Amino acid sequence: MSINWEGVMPAVTTKFNENDELDLKAFKINIQAQLDAGVHGIVLGGTLGEASTLSDDEKRTLTRETVAFVNDKVPVIINIAEQTTKAAIEAAKRAEEDGAKGLMMLPPMRYKSGDKETVEYFKAVANSTKLPIMVYNNPVDYKVEVTLDMFEDLLKNCPNIQAVKESTRDISNITRIINRFGNRLKIMTGVDTLALESLLMGANGWIAGLVCAFPKETVAIYELQKVGRIKEALEIYRWFLPLLELDINPKLVQNIKLAEVATGIGTENVRAPRLPLSGEERKHVLDVIAQGIKTRPSLPDYKNL
């Protein structure tokens, strides 16, 4: 199997109802908005998708329902964030059975694995599945870095490791990856506040967060920069930045779900131990969202550039 690792792929939120059950109706409203905006893939069960709170059955339901709903318009990718190699291999197997087209993979959770342990973990899962894999490299939040030397080993031994979600926060790392691996390792930027900069430095696409609430604006930035209309992309990006900063925050899930409510394509419900925002924190986020909506830019016909 192969995925065209480029374009905008939303790391979608998981919707819950008042009884803390999956809200598939609200979920599909958001997925449809993403498809209408022209996204290039859907990523399920990431940090923003509250993966650590989902049961295996809920992940399977989300995968199957999304695959059926999307109906091959774009690839559906599910995140693997497990504590053991055995569990990660089982998760990859379930993903393949449920129709996912690819995997996003974090290093082992909770245990801070060493370099060799991390490489062997990725190898074991990659060699257990036919699905293409994007390694999620986020040492800032998850404290394990996949270095270029580690990628060298992985790419040599695992042809289905095809991409990296680059979240080191170091823009120059994009150039290092390209210099080292050329087109062998596709780069998907994973930090909303560095997205346009990353794309201009050669990233192939954007695993996005605020796209969950503002899909058209996100895709417009990608498409405009792709055809060299940088000034127009930059104008939208500068408008977007205060909103994008809601993603680089420990409460990104609550922040972005509030934004989804404001744009009419989501609900605020989160799963405990998360709680809805309150007090001054809530007021600040709502003010940022309100200002963004008030000044929302007119977009060019970005789908036909």
Automatic annotation (TrEMBL):
The keyword Lyase applies. SMART domains: DHDPS. Keywords: Lyase. Belongs to the DapA family. This is Dihydrodipicolinate synthase family protein.
